[in-house]
Design a protein that fits this description.
341 residues, mainly alpha, 14 helices, 5% strand
Length: 341
């Protein structure tokens, strides 16, 4: 081989390596999004709705769409089922109760390696008695001949997540490179709450959460049940992904001393989930950076009052290009801690 050929081969090798590294870097900033309706959640949601709908505000009722007619109304005749009555006569009516169904496998049997402490804290009796919940759900499914044939188009919503460059916006804000994969459980009969799922075995960096289906005005409810990209869903997507960048920092910097402060009687009635307070402030700031001051103020105005401490401090971080997010987070924890005197 001549010297000339050797130089050409060497140049091509360098080019190949450079392209490979570039593609690898790009790959780290892409993310996957899975959106689906889960049969287990819907089975539990039907029983839950049958149990509480007559007792809660109309604004929290499921959207009366074609989906509602096909996948809820036919089951109303089973309102006397023991599972429905257990919920109706219990003392836990949290709107996120049906996500407990994800602690059961496809055969509705309790799965292994579940964090029972979290289950107990979030779901009370239901989390502590998964075997009983399993038996009730299996009987409810058999008695009702529950159907699970859903026809929902998730493509427009997934496309919106991609076209809004959510991953890039998050990585730019946190000055990091992550792959914040999402698994979204769309819950069409849930007009109450969206909720992170944090009790499943944590074997990856995926964020799992339930996305509710908030109804508009009766004359504006679309016949197509597909989830839509709007300010609420945008906030939820940013919020849930943001936890990927902050969970380890919260574990590192949240102290027993801080926790002891929160146990004081004077804070008994105050919202004091510090992790959520921080992430809500961060989410509002991300929205402000990417969509403008007005949008940011709108988001922070409906968050816990101490989230504004986070929101305001992050201006220091944004204006200091060499500041790491971890440094900013550490200072945010200090500011919040000092606010509880």
């Amino acid at each position: 081989m001549t010297l000339k050929h050797s130089l050409i081969l060497f140049s091509l090798t360098i080019l190949f390596i450079s392209c490979t590294e570039l593609n690898s870097q790009k790959k780290t900033e892409t993310s996957s999004t899975v959106i689906k309706v889960d049969d287990r959640i819907q089975l539990f949601r039907v029983a839950y709705n049958l149990a509480i709908m007559d007792s809660i505000d109309q604004k929290f009722h499921p959207c009366e769409t074609e989906f509602y007619s096909q996948h809820y109304l036919p089951y109303k005749k089973y309102s006397d089922h023991p599972f429905v009555q257990k919920i109706a006569n219990g003392d836990l009516w949290n709107g996120d109760l049906p996500i407990l169904a994800l602690a059961l496998d496809e055969n509705l049997k309790p799965i292994k390696n579940i964090d029972t402490a979290i289950l107990s804290d979030q779901f009370g009796w239901y989390g502590e008695n998964l075997d009983s919940v399993s038996d009730l759900m299996i009987d409810f499914k058999n008695r009702t001949s529950f159907k699970d044939a859903y026809n929902i188009n998730f493509k427009p919503f997934k496309d919106s997540i991609q076209t809004n460059n959510i991953t890039q916006k998050l990585n730019d804000f946190f000055r990091a490179k992550k792959k914040p994969d999402l698994i979204v459980y769309f819950d069409p009969l849930n007009a109450i709450t969206s909720k992170t799922i944090n009790f499943l075995p944590n074997t990856d960096e995926k964020r799992r959460f339930v996305l509710n289906n908030v109804c508009g005005k009766p004359d504006s409810i679309p016949s197509d049940i597909s989830p839509r990209w709007n300010k609420d869903s945008r906030r939820i997507i940013f919020h849930e992904n943001a936890h990927l960048y902050t969970d380890n920092l919260f574990e590192k910097y949240y102290s027993d001393e801080f926790d002891k402060k929160l146990q004081q009687e004077k804070y008994k009635e105050e919202y004091k989930n510090i992790d959520e307070i921080i992430v809500r402030g961060i989410t509002a700031k991300i929205i402000q950076v990417n969509y403008g001051e007005k949008e940011g103020e709108f988001e922070i105005s409906r968050q816990p009052k101490r989230s504004r401490i986070v929101y305001d401090y992050l201006d220091t971080y944004i204006n200091n290009e060499i500041m790491t997010f971890e440094s900013a987070y550490r200072e945010v924890i200090k500011e919040l801690k000092n606010s509880y005197n």
